[in-house]
Design goal:
heterodimer, A: four-stranded antiparallel sheet, 0% helix, B: 112 residues, mainly beta, 11 strands
Chain lengths: 112, 112
């Protein structure tokens, strides 16, 4: 199993550009989530999904969209990037009935 | 929503000494408390966790204690080694397991 994978590893955007951060897992986990990590602020939940077709907002959802069409994939979309979205983004998944979340390697995003 | 506070933000110890990191949470409905270790440039990795019906859990040099009444939980690392140097995050889980709220992290440095 590859576990949780994320692409790209690093991305530079200009203000106003759009992009999609990809996240995939091959562990048949129903629960998937997105976090952003900023210095001194820990990780904050952006959006999460408890299964295909179901998504919900976390602590900091503004400026981000998600969808879950398959169990494996949970992309995060930035429709109009802003410098405040400069951060490291982590995707995570959790097995059914489990509590432990497994994190992907992260995507470092710089918005100029 | 849940609020998790973590102290200290930095901790420096001599090799072989013990290290203690403390967290408090606000939501009495939180029922699962994981601890993550994050090395520079890497993903957070679970090192130990505790459920709300348990007061203490130990795994080799690492232990976690939970005081539900006071809403406190702590990470204890004994016989610290240089490879323990990293950022440690506490977290609390609410929302039926769907929302993971992190503390702001503790930078642990183990000096030779």
């Amino acid at each position: 199993n590859a576990g949780v994978t994320q692409t790209p590893k690093f991305q530079v955007l200009k203000t106003g550009q759009s992009m999609t951060l990809q996240c995939a897992q091959d562990m048949n986990h129903e629960y998937m989530s997105w976090y952003r990590q900023d210095p001194g602020m820990g990780l904050r939940l952006i959006h999460y999904s408890v299964g295909a077709g179901i998504t919900d907002q976390g602590e900091v959802p503004n400026g981000y969209n998600v969808s879950r069409s398959t169990t494996e994939d949970f992309p995060l979309r930035l429709l109009s990037a802003a410098p405040s979205q400069t951060s490291v983004y982590f995707c995570a998944s959790r097995s059914p009935g489990g509590e432990t979340q497994y994190f992907g390697p992260g995507t470092r995003l710089l918005v100029l | 929503g849940e609020n998790v506070e973590q102290h200290p933000s930095t901790l420096s110890v001599q090799e072989g000494d013990s290290a203690v990191i403390k967290c408090t949470y606000s939501d009495s409905a939180s029922n699962y408390f994981p601890w993550y270790k994050q090395e520079l440039g890497k993903r957070p990795q679970l090192i130990i966790d505790i459920r709300s019906n348990v007061g203490e859990k130990k795994d080799q040099r690492i232990a976690v204690t939970l005081n539900k009444t006071a809403k406190h939980f702590s990470l204890h690392i004994t016989e610290t080694q240089p490879e323990d140097s990293a950022v440690y995050f506490c977290a609390a889980v609410t929302g039926g397991g769907n929302k993971l709220t992190f503390g702001t992290g503790t930078q642990l440095k183990v000096e030779l």
